[in-house]
């Protein structure tokens, strides 16, 4: 009988990229590999973090710490780096892997991008309170933009008469309009993620971040698509003239269709909002941190 020879190609914790394409995301399973590897390492090094609950073993780990282990861009020495970070953590006598257990940034830098890792740890998950705080700030920004254009409050929104029914306090808005503001805020995270940034608590005297102009239209397009999907889901329809009371809007067309118009008002609203994101976050005590180089579309 002939002997069969072969090998097993075991992928490590890093994303497998296509050669010469550093931004390739064709390996969606790297997160699963990391999760399996992390659990194995923790079982071996810090078994006390696991608790037997009925027939399962539950790992007690801070969500930010877990997010960083699973989402950091790269481990410099593969699985050895994951293990080294765990080994350097202050886990002796601990029953939960807290943020305070992690090694300092300088030590993390030996095995990953320390700033990125810690930024992922600190990434904000919007609570209801934070969501409303940011929604109110966005509404204040929205009203300020209207007032700059000469709009005043009116029972009906009329662009010709420059009246707008939303020029009022956030909590005086109808419930559906309050929710629209919240939806806008929820989507900020998607815009940041798409452009390689995350939202974190700001340090004292930290300057608000300004998005690079090269990527402005890409993010503005995302905002328009979000807004349009929300309107269509709520029963709005395209019409030559916007009539808020009848759920008719003249801008319910694709970004590409808007580009064909000589009037850039609709697109400029989206661009202005994207530019305003850092300032809105700064007023709530947050900033954005760059995680990876941004790559322009061609």
Descriptive notes:
With 298 residues, the protein is mainly α. It folds into two domains: 93 residues, no CATH class; 163 residues, Orthogonal Bundle (Globin-like), CATH 1.10.490. Helix content is 44%, strand content 9%. It contains eleven helices and eight strands. Strands 1-2 form a two-stranded antiparallel ribbon. It has a two-stranded parallel sheet with strand order 3-4. α2 crosses α5, α6 crosses α7 and α9 crosses α11. The longest helix has 21 residues. The C terminus is likely disordered.
Low-confidence stretches: 293-298
* Global mean pLDDT: 87
Helix and strand run: HEEHHHHHEEHHEHEEHHE
Q: Write down how many β-strands occur, each being a DSSP E stretch of 2 or more residues.
A: 8
CATH class of the largest domain: Mainly Alpha
By DSSP (H or I, 4+ residues per run), the number of helices equals 11
Helix content: 40-55%
Key phrases:
two-stranded parallel sheet, 298 residues, 8 strands, Globin-like
Topology, pairings included?
Layout: H1 30-45, E1 50-53, E2 56-59, H2 63-71, H3 79-88, H4 105-108, H5 114-122, H6 128-148, E3 152-153, E4 163-164, H7 175-186, H8 188-194, E5 197-201, H9 216-233, E6 237-238, E7 248-249, H10 255-259, H11 265-283, E8 286-290
Parallel strand pairs: 3-4, 6-7
Antiparallel strand pairs: 1-2, 5-8
Helix pairs in contact: 1-3, 2-5, 6-7, 6-11, 9-11
